[in-house]
Amino acid sequence: MKMLLYGANGYTGELIARLASTYNLKPILAGRNEEAIRSLANELNLPYRMLGLDNPEELFDALAEVDLVLHAAGPFQKTALPMLEACIRSKTHYLDITGEIPAFELAYSFNGPAEQAGIMLMPGVGFDVVPTDCMALHLKKRLPDAEALQLAFASEGGGLSHGTAATMIMGLGEGGIIRENGELVKRPLGHKGQWVDFGDKRKFVMTIPWGDVATAYHTTGIANIETYTAIKPTIYRLLKLQIAFNWLLRTSFVRNVARKKLGKMPMGPSEKALRDSKSFIWGKVTSKNGQSVETSMTVANGYTLTAHSSLVIAKKIENGNFRAGYQTPAGMYGEKLILEVPGSKWNPAT
After folding, report:
1. H/E element holding 332?
2. 113-141 pLDDT tens trace
3. Cα–Cα distance between 295 and 282 in angstroms, integer?
4. Phi, then psi, of 289 in degrees rounded to 5
5. CB 64: neighbour CB atoms within 10 A?
6. What letters, b where the CB count within 10 A reaches 16 and e where it falls short, cover 243-254?
7. What pLDDT is attached to residue 236?
8. How far apart are CA 335 and CA 329, in angstroms?
9. How far does Cα 314 stand from its chain's mean position?
């Protein structure tokens, strides 16, 4: 199978490129920064090509030569559309590592054309949303008549990459999203908060617009979904004042200031930070009569998990294990998919 890794010069893209040989995959490295791509390709003895997303014919020609593209260059609200269109035209399988709700909904809108082209579209093959998607399906199986789903994650150690931070800057002042009665509904960021038990740790979490608000609905059919992340209670209380300054956060001035500060930051967590960090996942489902089931799991840090899980799924496609159309990770490969990723384990109470 010929595979193209787009955005290989980014922090997560490089992690994927360096790990690919572990899965006996030799991707073509691609991106806009020719110097960085060439240097990495020469180091890893992999082919490469300079490739942008603003020339549809050039992009089509590149994808027509491969069977699969693993898209790792966000923010995906800006980059997913040209790649999806080129994949449909060239009949190339599409994977990406997004966690952005609009990007998931965009990919879903291509379900029909993807089925006709005989290709699979699977956005969110990384930390967003593989572990939480597997959690959602696991809980749905334990409580089949569940009508509400809550998912939360927390990280210990590590930090942000430039790509993740850039996506967060795009969302400044935009608020949150939940799924209510099957529909995506806007809510203030952190409109709900609670303490949850992640196994050996209890943390305070608040609602955020995580990708599962889009994907878990397709995986489980549960119509009411909220997603949370850990945050200090003091910061949560300050966020309650956000309605007064969201307009300011949405201005070009504030976002440009944030981008300039981002440009002075390291590209992502250090190797030591990655080694010393991990993540925790929690989920709870509730039925109409009030019955509930909850559980938790521990996984690798988000970046390491993303590198492994994206390649695990790419390898499955190489082996012919795919289904045409829009698919979610757990919906396609089951709740045990996460256990194929090193460092993942359900907590004892599961």
Report:
1. helix 329-333
2. 999 999 999 999 999 899 999 999 999 99
3. 6
4. -85, 5
5. 12
6. eeeeeeeeeeeb
7. 75
8. 9
9. 15
pLDDT tens, position by position, 188-211: 878 899 999 998 789 999 888 899
Tokens of 326: 């829009």
Which CATH superfamily is 3-126+304-336 part of?
A: NAD(P)-binding Rossmann-like Domain (3.40.50.720)
Dist. CA 306–CA 69, nearest whole Å: 15
Q: Which two tokens stand for residue 284?
A: 């709870």
pTM (global) more than 0.85:
yes
Residue type for position 203: K
For the chain, what are the domain ranges?
Answer: 3-126+304-336, 130-301
And the tokens for 128?
A: 């967003």
Helix (H, G, I), strand (E, B) or coil at 193: strand
Cα–Cα distance for residue pair 155/301, rounded to 1 Å: 7
283 DSSP β-pair partners: 151, 295
Degrees, nearest 5: CA angle 149-299-171: 60
Local structure of residue 126 (DSSP, 8 states): B
Amino acid at the residue 197: D
